[in-house]
Write a structure and sequence with these properties.
There is one protein chain. The chain is an alpha+beta fold. The protein is built from 16 helices and 38 strands. The strands form eleven sheets. The chain has a six-stranded mixed sheet with strand order 7-4-6-5-9-8, with no helix packed on it. It has a six-stranded mixed sheet with strand order 16-13-17-21-20-18, with helices on both faces. Strands 19, 22, 24, 25, 26 and 28 form a six-stranded mixed sheet that branches. Strand 24 (369-379) and strand 25 (382-387) form a beta hairpin. Helix 4 (226-237) packs parallel to helix 7 (325-343), helix 9 (442-453) crosses helix 15 (623-632) and helix 9 runs antiparallel to helix 16 (635-644). The two termini are 51 Å apart. 40% of the residues are buried.
């Protein structure tokens, strides 16, 4: 989605957009009213091709299942009256008839009084018989007779015709998703072909000059088209047949032509991008020329997802999703999936919900219902819901979340400690085996890889060192990675421990000043001299780190109270600092040596930082925690960490 600054001449364009912000419920109701009722297209499918399809009509059983009375065991077909007096001390002798009834063999001899016919499991019951005795309850009495030492009741070990499925009974209802069990039922009734709802064909178009398809070189200021792939996959997951038409640049004529082609061939059109207030956002303007009634809703009081545009063009739904991935996927699943499933003849989606405690305050925007993606972990008193702080542009916010919670439009926050209802993205809660909350490091991934390969699930939530310690004190995690320097003792991490928390050494990583190679303001200087040179140059812009990060403490020590240009630019990761410098948005910052090396930046060492682990003592004996400790101390982890530029802190502890 291209965003172009507004000019005085763009006032009319602003007036055309977001004329009325609708509530989520009102927008969805208007959209469905404009689309339904409508006939669901049907098609016939062979049973072998029907898996996953939705039945378009009720199916009644054309035959009885089983179609005849049959034996449930291997034994003898008998007349129960013949065995009324049978017992352990009073066996009854029966003559064996001269045929054996196997599956698929129609019996020819009648079971008359005093006789029995050998029969296999599934064999049709012969005329005259009304029960079956198990072969284990008989004894041979010569070549043509048996002794039976147990009485038999009428119907014993017999399945009667129609006892499973009766001819004419409702077998499956319209809307049923055909799975392996349903295919078994249909096959048992001899049904070889079913009428199912034809999957709606959904055209998918991404819009924006900045988009590059995965696999192609990424130009400066360009991004990979995430939405095209994920929206197409989500359509297929929810009963549609996605037709991805690629990314169209911000050219009104080209985009309109693509949209017209899509609507001529497909049942539905989904675009991403082109819904906000930028002059390059063309999609919503084109819709008015594609058919009636046109735009139904443009702007929904929803966060994320306010720019959502819903339209109907000559009976076909047209949806323009926001450009940011999390906004696009949340609005798709929340607003579009119900419509898509209805068009596909599928039943209404049933979402599982759980209650959880929110450990931190979540700010919100008055006037908009906000949906916050959360990750669930097990706490002392139940589930804990950690909000994702990555924003609507982060694809991992949706991919790694377990579900979402809702903040009412009239609330400006959700206080810490709130007990909230979480709507799950999956039918069940996926509580991880190991929960890590604190400062993230790429070295951590090298250690936890061993656990993942062993089948253990690990959840790592990056909230910074102080946030991790707080979570550990509340019993919300197994361990917290920290790197906190204490000015008074001039040591790392240990001064921050409290009862119930113990420290396990991790590794050492060199922190230092990062800059673009060739920048003579920094070349050849030490860290303190480099910062002094930067402070002396008003044009030199820094990039900082977020409050609570161990790196921020080091930076503030170097600055000594100075607040140079860029100080309030506070990204949350080492990678973001390096990217800001490499892309000339800043001239210097502080990060770790492996990150600087990875992007080819100059690096001035300052201090070796201690990246250690604060373990919750009460949880240290858990199998997953012990597995982490084993992995941490393994030779495999040591080799991987050293290769990545870290210095393991064991067996020697500085």
């Amino acid at each position: 989605m291209t965003m172009i600054p507004q000019t005085p001449d763009s006032g009319r364009l602003e007036q055309e957009q977001f004329l009325k912000i609708l509530s989520r419920e009102d927008a969805l109701a208007r959209f469905e009213t404009a689309l339904f009722p409508r006939a669901i297209p049907r098609e016939a499918r062979k049973l072998a091709d029907a898996l996953g399809a939705a039945l378009a009509e009720d199916i009644t059983a054309p035959v009885d299942v089983p179609p005849f009375d049959r034996s449930n065991v291997d034994g003898f077909a008998v007349r129960s009256a013949d065995l009324a007096a049978a017992g352990e001390g009073t066996p009854v002798r029966l003559a064996v008839n001269g045929e054996t009834i196997h599956c698929g063999i129609a019996p020819t001899l009648q079971v008359v009084a005093g006789t029995a016919t050998p029969i296999a499991t599934g064999g049709p019951l012969p005329r005259g018989a009304d029960a079956v005795v198990m072969v284990e309850h008989t004894q041979p009495a010569g070549p043509d007779a048996i002794d039976v030492r147990r009485a038999a009741s009428p119907g014993q070990f017999v399945s009667y015709a129609g006892s499973d499925i009766a001819r004419g009974e409702a077998l499956l209802r319209a809307g049923t998703i055909i799975g392996s069990r349903e295919i078994g039922m249909l096959a048992a009734c001899g049904i070889a072909e079913v009428i199912v709802a034809r999957k709606p064909r959904v055209a998918v178009i991404s819009t924006g000059d900045e988009l590059v398809q995965p696999g192609q070189p990424l130009a400066p200021a360009a991004i990979y088209d995430t939405n095209g792939a994920i929206v197409a996959a989500a359509i297929d997951e929810n009963g549609g047949e996605a037709i991805f038409l690629g990314a169209i640049p911000d050219d009104e004529a080209k985009l309109e032509a693509a949209m017209r082609r899509a609507l001529s061939d497909a049942d539905m059109l989904v675009l991403s991008g082109g819904t906000s207030k930028g002059a390059g956002d063309l999609s919503h303007r084109i819709i008015g020329r594609l058919g009636q009634p046109g735009i139904i809703a443009h702007g929904v009081a929803l966060k994320p997802g306010k720019p959502l545009c819903l339209a109907v063009c000559d009976g076909k739904p047209v949806v323009i999703l926001p450009g940011f991935p999390t906004s696009a996927m949340f609005t798709f699943h929340d607003m579009i999936v119900p419509v898509l499933r209805r068009m596909a003849g599928l039943p209404v989606r049933s979402d599982a919900r759980v209650n959880a405690t929110v450990p931190v305050r979540i700010s919100s925007e008055l006037g908009r219902t906000e949906f916050v993606m959360v990750s669930l972990v097990e706490g002392r008193d139940g589930l804990i819901a950690y909000p994702s702080g990555k924003g609507s542009g982060a694809i991992t916010s949706f991919a790694q979340a377990d579900g979402f919670l809702r903040i009412d439009a009239m609330a400006d926050q959700m206080p810490a400690g709130t007990h909230a209802e979480v709507t799950l993205f999956t039918p069940h809660v996926r509580v991880p085996d190991l929960v890590i909350v604190g400062s993230h490091c790429t070295g951590l991934d090298l250690v936890t890889a061993q656990l993942a390969h062993a089948g253990l699930s690990v959840r790592s939530i990056a909230v910074g060192s102080l946030g991790g310690l707080a979570a550990a004190k509340r019993g919300e995690c197994d361990l917290a990675p920290i790197h906190l320097f204490d000015d008074k003792s001039e040591t790392y991490n240990t001064p921050y421990l409290v009862d119930g928390i113990e420290l396990v050494p991790g590794w050492r990583r060199m922190q230092g000043i990062v800059f673009r190679k060739g920048d003579m303001r920094f070349e050849g200087l030490g860290a303190k001299e480099a910062v002094a040179a930067a402070l002396a140059d008003p044009a030199c812009i820094m990039v900082n780190r977020n409050q609570g990060a161990g790196t921020r403490i080091l930076i503030d020590r170097l600055l000594g109270g100075a607040r140079p240009e860029g100080y309030w630019n506070q990204p949350r990761s080492h990678n973001a600092v390096a990217a800001a410098v490499a892309q000339h948005r800043a001239d210097w910052g502080m990060t770790i040596a492996p990150v600087a090396d990875a992007v080819g930046l100059g690096f001035i060492p300052f201090a070796e930082e201690h990246y250690d682990f604060a373990f919750v003592t009460a949880r240290k004996q858990r199998p997953a925690v012990q597995a982490f400790l084993d992995a941490l101390l393994s030779e495999e982890a040591r080799t991987a960490l050293e290769r990545a530029g870290f210095r393991p802190a064991w067996p020697l502890v500085d």
